[in-house]
Amino acid sequence: MAKIRRLPQSVINKIAAGEVIERPASVVKELVENSLDAGATRIDVAVAKGGIEFIRVADNGCGIAFEDLELAVASHATSKIGDAEDLFHVRTLGFRGEALASIAEVSHLRLRSRTPDSDSGGEIYVEGGLVRSLAPCGCPVGTVVEVRQLFFNTPVRRKFLRSTTTELGHISETVAKLALAHFRVHFTLTHNDRPVLQLPAAAGLLERIAALYGQDLADSLIPVSSEDGPVRLYGYVAHPAFSRPNAKMQFLFLNGRAIRDRNLQHALNEAYRGLLTVGRQPVAFLVLEMPPEMVDVNVHPTKQEVRFLDSGRLYSQLLGTLRREFLSSDLSTRIPAPTPEQDGDSWRSPHDPEKVRATRQQIVEWAKGELQQRLAGNLATGSETAKAVSDTAHASSHSSETARPALRSGETIAPGEQRAEHKRDLATAVVELRSAGSGASDFGQTTESLGRKVEQGAHPELGLGSEAPAKVLQIHNRYLITESDEGLVVIDQHALHERILYEQLRQSLQDGPLTTQQLLIPEPVDLSPVEAALALENKELLAELGLSIEPFGGTTVLVHSYPAMLRHMSAGDLLRSVLAALAEGRSQPDRATLLDSILHSLACKAAIKAGERLAPEQVRALLEQSRQVLHSHHCPHGRPTMLVFSREELDRYFRRT
């Protein structure tokens, strides 16, 4: 064993640099945070070759006095804390006093600074941790730090750096996070003398989001806010349609500091459960403000992870805030209409504004009249195919046929009538009931049993009136088309029924064990060895779900009962579906999440299928029940159940505005 000895200060600084300075973006982060702590209202960042060769951060903050310059680059020297007690009341981004010393140890660092009450500034130059020069100089109020040849004396670290493009991407992401957290500060970023970011001071967080990520995303954001004692939560979350394949667009800020927290990220994902498809991540910009004594920021060298005094309370606040906001928000998937920029000037209508207003409802009125007539005929015969003709014909001056006058707003087309030579068939499916069912009542329990009935009146998501629409058309045996107060709605029958069943199952499970259907003669189900072991291992959980089983020898089990609302499924299919969900959820963290996954699977298996023909009363029952469940705009797996076309969007598609 070698003799214990004290490490040289240079080695200590290099070790600290290894913890704090991972790549050029780390340098930018530390220097910009110092500028923010100095009260700067403008910060200019310039880099060259991805920051590997050159980094410059200039600010108009309070500056550093000439006599403090040498201390500024010394290890663990800072003006931000005075004693150990201050560590529990940290109100600044930096407080360890190691950033400049660590940077100077592995680079060529030049720092120029002047305070407002000084006639001149000072400059210090440090090379590999050694001060080479210190002298007065002329410079504006504020601080300019230049870092060249990063990791010049630690080649092992330098060779692990990525390409220029990759390093620039990390720098841009770092500046963007700091700019979001401090939107009142003017930020610029240039690379090789070319502008990358130009972010003037913003009036609010939303304005800064739009500047960084585009107005389309900003327009889709849902504002959220809540207060719980001294803790304030506010910010924006995106409509599920703007989800991402990773979590890079999830921003969490604590007292001006960008942080990562698994607990809060789990709360965010939990709030979006059932609104996003598997593998998609929500977009969120969330700000937490709380007294500094409620959080410990001194738990990680880069200060990106913190420890909260009451993390469970924050989890509940975030989850509850988002869920309340989602319940009062329209999360239906809407189809954007073409914009003037996308379609030039040809989208504009030749009509004057008064005529535009008169024709605005033409498409919907046509659909209302045509569907009513077609459905009336179909309901009478049970098999007649509905046909409608499109309003696309233009009478030719060379045509020998007599041209009909132009269709006017509010005018409907009679059955079978043709508009010039153009006509199009719209197939409708009005058919027999499900073979195992008994009409609309087989869609599940009555809406009163849900226990969370939506207030009677306008549907919060579909926009339907207080009664289900009388005119509904099924096409391709998988989609339902109906009108709403604002336009046209296209519904995926399987996805909507899946959401209804899931909510019914979940509510029933919350009220106690599911209502079961006892089998007069137990049904034997042959399973694989793995399935049989899984079934017997989770016998109590299956009973909670309404599946009562017992071993019957070998890999066969007897099913004595199953959930009454899923009576359309055979006992074997139902059991295998539950076991498949159990197998997939073995690594999931808790029983509640596991049960939820099983309910997703059950609802999917039991729901009406795409391609299944529905009787009119079944369609009406489906829409009526959709009015009584939460989040009917998305299926439990996060797929949209409906697409909404507003009248304005339809008008723009047909270039009427």
Task: Give a structural overview.
By secondary structure, the chain is α+β, with helices and mostly antiparallel strands. It is 33% helix and 20% strand. It contains 20 helices and 23 strands. Helix 1 packs across helix 4, helix 6 packs antiparallel against helix 7 and helix 17 crosses helix 18.
Helices and strands, with pairings:
Blueprint: H1 9-20, H2 24-37, E1 42-48, E2 54-59, H3 69-72, H4 99-105, E3 108-114, E4 121-127, E5 130-137, E6 142-148, H5 155-159, H6 164-181, E7 186-191, E8 194-199, H7 205-213, H8 215-220, E9 221-228, E10 231-238, E11 250-254, E12 257-258, H9 262-271, E13 284-289, E14 295-296, E15 307-308, H10 311-327, E16 333-334, H11 340-343, H12 353-359, H13 362-381, E17 472-475, E18 479-483, E19 487-492, H14 493-511, E20 516-526, H15 529-537, H16 539-544, E21 548-551, E22 556-563, H17 571-584, H18 591-606, H19 616-626, E23 642-646, H20 647-653
Parallel strand pairs: 1-7, 11-13, 16-23
Antiparallel strand pairs: 1-2, 2-6, 3-4, 3-6, 4-5, 7-8, 9-10, 10-13, 11-12, 14-15, 17-18, 18-19, 19-23, 20-22, 21-22
